[in-house]
Amino acid sequence: MKTKDQITQTMILISGLIISMLATVLKQYPIVMVIGLGIQIFATFKLFTITKNKYLIWSLASLMLSFAIVFLSGTFVPMMTTDMFTIIAILSNFLLITYVLIRMADVLLMVYASENAHNDFYKRFYQFLAISFTVMILVGSVGTFLEGFTIIRCLSQY
Predict the structure, then answer these.
(1) Are 16 and 36 in contact (CB under 8 A)?
(2) Alpha carbons 97 and 73: distance in angstroms, whole number
(3) Is the whole-model pTM more than 0.70?
(4) Residue scoring higher pLDDT (137 or 2)
């Protein structure tokens, strides 16, 4: 029964991850991302209650912080009445923090999955995913930093 529950929660977690990825592609960031993160938080919490794994508690904390950031940036930033550049700069900073937190949660989940893999192929596959997500964090962080730097340069010319 325990293994069946773990498989079910892992499937729910993967669906949340797919929704979160779609949110980035669709550019409907706050609304879709809140739904995706909600699913991921629910499934991670259920997995933690089943397994009591230390990686899952850190992953859960990271996802909850991401959820709060996305929710707040989606709710309050559009209400601000400053010029467009400032809003873009604020949002890109929020989204960079969120991106890093979500990917860190994913890395922790992959480490957890590789530790609990049933055979060597899956162990290596999850380790590969953990490394891939780590590279994504580094590349995404540099890209968003350069984007933020460009926005600040544009602002300083006015």
Answers:
(1) yes
(2) 11
(3) no
(4) 137
